């Protein structure tokens, strides 16, 4: 199991590094498309298609068809969070002999997940209300975008720089801190109607009694059912599938109830043979 977990982790880390180097601004570009629509509405102008919306539409379509794999594998801001979290875990294990990783309780995580919707609503209202320009210099992801292009933020971005530092501290204490709790684009992805085949499912009858390894490993503390009300919070990191000792979890797989139905159908057909 550990070999499988390490293999999944290495593959994911390699893909994240590739996107971090090649396309570190995909997140900010996608949200720029969303902002352009609401800024136009707030300014009483007609909404016109632009290059930002190309990226926004592409990522939304990918999310609907395949789940939030962009969040799990391609978002540079999310990759930064993973790197910081794993670094802290490594330091705690090697220097302080604490193997248990830091993290918040399930109840607190589910409560904090709602904060990103407030952040999204505030930003969109600021666009419609015409005061978004007054928030310039306060965006932590704008500061992050500057840093990834080798530019140091100016003094006008002091607030954004402070917020970025605070977010990075949060990233050290909880896996996918920003993605789960503060990301406005993540809020949009979470409410998208994801196709059933893009959701993780598990074969419940095959699970070991009282085994909750998948839920404990999931950064969002999700029940891996494929139909949970929190399914939109899944960032498709594949950690649940990698940690399952019986390999019961897969994307769009046959659920336990479906398995039981198939067994009953088979038994019924045998009776008539």
Textual characterization of the structure:
There is one protein chain. The chain has 273 residues and is an all-alpha fold. It is globular, with a radius of gyration of 21 Å. A two-stranded antiparallel sheet has the order 1-2. The protein has 14 helices and two strands; from the N terminus they run H-H-H-H-H-H-H-H-H-H-H-E-H-H-E-H.
Key traits:
two-stranded antiparallel ribbon; disordered C terminus; 273 residues; globular; mainly alpha
Global mean pLDDT: 90
Query: What is the total tally of β strands?
Result: 2
Shape label: globular
Gap between N and C termini: 42 Å
The percent range for helix content is: 55-70%
How would you characterize the largest beta sheet?
Answer: 2 strands, antiparallel
Strand content: under 5%
**With helices defined by DSSP (H or I, 4 residues minimum), what is the helix count?**
14
Low-confidence stretches: 255-273
Short note summarizing the structure:
With 273 residues, this protein is an all-alpha fold. The chain is built from 14 helices and two strands. The longest helix is centred in the first third of the chain and has 21 residues, at 2-22.
Task: Spell out the blueprint of helices and strands.
Layout: H1 2-22, H2 26-42, H3 51-66, H4 69-74, H5 76-95, H6 106-112, H7 115-129, H8 140-148, H9 158-173, H10 177-181, H11 184-190, E1 200-202, H12 213-217, H13 239-243, E2 249-251, H14 256-272
Antiparallel strand pairs: 1-2
Helix pairs in contact: 2-3, 2-7, 5-9, 7-11, 8-9
């Amino acid at each position: 199991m550990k070999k499988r977990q390490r293999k999944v982790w290495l593959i994911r880390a390699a893909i994240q590094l590739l996107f971090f180097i090649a396309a570190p601004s995909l997140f900010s570009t996608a949200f720029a498309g969303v902002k352009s629509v609401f800024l136009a509405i707030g300014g009483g102008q007609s909404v016109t298609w632009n290059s930002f919306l190309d990226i926004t539409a592409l990522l939304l379509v990918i999310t609907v068809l395949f789940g939030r794999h962009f969040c799990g594998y391609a978002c540079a801001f999310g990759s930064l969070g993973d790197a910081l979290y794993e670094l802290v875990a490594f330091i705690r294990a090697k220097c302080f002999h604490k193997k248990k990783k830091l993290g918040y309780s399930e109840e607190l995580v589910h409560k904090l997940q709602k904060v990103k919707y407030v952040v999204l609503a505030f930003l969109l209202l600021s666009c419609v209300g015409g005061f978004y320009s007054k928030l310039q210099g306060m965006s932590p992801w704008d500061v992050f975008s500057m840093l990834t292009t080798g530019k140091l933020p100016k003094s006008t971005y002091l607030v954004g720089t402070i917020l970025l530092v605070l977010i990075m501290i949060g990233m050290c204490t909880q896996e996918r801190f920003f993605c789960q709790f503060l990301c406005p684009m993540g809020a949009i992805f979470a409410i998208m109607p994801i196709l059933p085949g893009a959701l993780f499912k598990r074969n419940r009858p095959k699970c070991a009694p009282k085994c909750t390894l998948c839920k404990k490993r999931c950064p969002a503390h999700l029940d891996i059912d494929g139909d949970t009300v929190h399914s939109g919070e899944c960032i498709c990191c594949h950690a649940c599938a990698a940690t399952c000792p019986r390999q019961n979890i897969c994307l769009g797989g046959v659920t336990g109830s479906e398995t039981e139905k198939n067994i009953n159908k088979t038994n019924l057909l045998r009776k008539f043979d």
